[in-house]
Amino acid sequence: MAEEDNTIVQMHDLRPAPGAKKDRIRVGRGEGSKGKTSGRGAKGTKKRYQVRPGFEGGQLPLYMRMPKLRGFKSPFKVEYQVVNVDALSKAFPKGGEITAEDMAKAGLVRANQPVKVLGDGEAAVAFTLKGVKASASAAKKIEAAGGSVSEA
Fold first, then answer.
1. Domains (ranges, CATH) in the chain?
2. How does pLDDT run across 117-133, given as a tens digit for each residue?
3. Contact 46/82 with Cβ under 8 angstroms?
4. Model confidence pLDDT, tens digit, residues 58-68
5. Where is the Large ribosomal subunit protein uL15/eL18 domain (predicted)?
């Protein structure tokens, strides 16, 4: 019978595989670390220092190509979500009192944003709109069908 090898591997016996642990190359740290050019090649900007962010090699940079100070955006502008009378008639066939929250639940608008009703289509039933703006033509059609519009 051959003699069996009953050695147990211990923590202090473990070593990384040969070539698995290599030192990081510290580029640009003098001749002693790597050699004459320290891994930075010969001559040129990148040998001497790093170029600044946004530098495009002398080409006119993007931030200078863009137009400067064009127009004005009012911070107080109110963007309304629009709903037509026709969409209201389809979403609420029985009519009744309708608020912006009801329209949001029906999927006509996004919640918590101002709503304006426009006059495209016909009002089939009487709507009572509360807390919603309406165009003149929409208000005329809704009132003709027996409904009303109040913004507050």
1. 26-71 (no CATH), 81-150 (3.100.10.10)
2. 999 999 889 989 999 99
3. no
4. 899 999 999 88
5. 82-149
Q: What is the pTM of this model?
A: 0.53
Q: Is the dihedral of CA 23, 25, 26, 30 positive or negative?
A: positive
Exposed e or buried b per residue across 12-29, where buried means at least 16 C-beta atoms within 10 angstroms of its C-beta: eeeeeeeeeeeeeeeeee
Here the tokens at position 148 are 């009303």
Measured CA to CA, the distance from residue 152 to residue 148 in angstroms comes to 12
Q: State the maximum Cα–Cα separation within the chain, in Å, rounded to a whole number.
A: 109
SS3 label, residue 84? strand
Which segments within the chain are labelled E, that is strand?
Answer: 81-84, 96-98, 115-118, 127-130, 133-134, 148-150
- Determine how many CB atoms are found less than 10 A away from the CB of residue 120: 15
Q: Which residue has the tokens 């940079």?
A: 61
In one-letter notation, the amino acid at residue 33 is: S
